[in-house]
Specification:
By secondary structure, this protein is an alpha/beta fold. Helix content is 45%, strand content 14%. It is built from 14 helices and eight strands.
């Protein structure tokens, strides 16, 4: 017991907090954030000591209609510069690039020409060769690179190990554990971390975690990962993110004991900006429909549709989900 208390009262200097509010939160409002919101978010991250700020996606404008999405779906370098200005005091800038949904050869410039610091490649297991090609491209251009293997809760461990071996032999810097469906429990997260850590240590990679809150376990799974040696921690203010949302930034900063993190700044941002988004009608966060998809280890798309249609017939919806299994 004495050892556990000592660990809880100290901190690991290698921890890095990544704000994913604009990117994962953008999936809720189609990335239509006002510039003053984005500027305030960036300034809050500076004051709160957040290490990385993910601005959004590098999506192909050939695949996605620019009229239907806000600019952070595409993250033009000039739009980022208009927010960050002099980056000397701010967090590092990250963007996500989904395999098959971006024109990374043309839309991602050399690091020397861009305000972006990290490219976060997102992939499903069956897309791993394409993901490795994107990782190599981003690394050749001078970026830090992470890889998010999505939807790991419904794949075979043997397949994950093959993917981890491929990533280990790639130039990726950080490999992310992603609970896309919010289906994992802390005990499961611990076992998953053991598998990932084996390959991370073998190949000299860092680990990250990105949790969803379908079962109100995003924070629990994140701090479990911290205890299991994961260094890069994704969080969003007021848990804003797709469906049930993510690990709450204000919870995470309050838990981490590193004095550089200032949870008070997170509280202020939630009070003045996140609550305003909710008052204006933006909907996200834990609800029964997301709990159900998490329990059944299903993609939350059906629950998102349930929410958009303002349905309240939870029992009927649960019967529909069971029939999908």
């Amino acid at each position: 017991m004495e050892k556990e208390l000592t660990q809880l009262m100290s901190y690991r200097p290698g921890i890095r907090v990544v704000d994913a509010t604009l990117r994962d939160g953008g999936l809720v409002n189609d990335f239509f954030f006002k510039d003053d919101f984005v500027k305030a978010l960036y300034e809050t991250n500076i004051k709160a000591g957040v290490d990385y700020m993910e601005f959004g996606y590098k999506c192909s404008k050939e695949m996605f209609d620019v009229k239907k999405f806000g600019k952070w779906k595409f993250c033009a370098d000039d739009d980022i510069r208009a927010i960050v200005g002099d980056q000397s005091k701010g967090p590092k800038i990250a963007v996500m690039a989904d395999v098959g949904r971006c024109d990374y050869q043309n839309d991602i410039l050399k690091k020397s020409e861009s305000p972006i610091d990290m490219i976060r490649v997102a992939t499903y297991l069956h897309q791993m060769p394409a993901a490795v090609a994107m990782i190599e491209d981003a690394k050749d251009k001078g970026y830090e690179v992470s890889c998010n293997i999505m939807a790991i809760s419904n794949v075979q461990e043997s397949d994950i190990k093959v993917a981890l071996d491929l990533l280990g032999n790639s130039p990726v810097d950080i490999i992310y554990i992603v609970d896309s469906y919010g289906a994992l429990y802390p005990e499961t997260m611990s076992r998953v971390c053991d598998v990932y850590r084996e390959y991370a240590e073998k190949y000299g990679k860092k680990l990250g975690v990105h949790a969803h809150n379908n079962q109100q376990l995003a924070f629990a799974n994140t701090i479990e990962a911290v205890g299991d040696g994961v260094d890069y921690l994704d969080a969003t203010y007021a848990s804003m993110g797709r469906g049930a949302g993510n690990c709450a930034m204000e919870l995470l900063l309050g838990f981490l004991k590193n004095p550089k993190y200032k949870e008070f700044e997170a509280f202020k941002f939630v009070e003045y900006h996140m609550n305003k988004l909710k008052e204006e009608g933006t909907v996200w966060g834990y609800d029964l429909q997301y709990l159900m998809t998490g329990l059944l280890n299903q993609h939350p798309r059906t629950a998102i549709e349930f929410t958009k249609n303002k349905r309240k017939d939870y029992a009927e919806f649960y019967k529909e989900l069971i029939l999908l299994d």
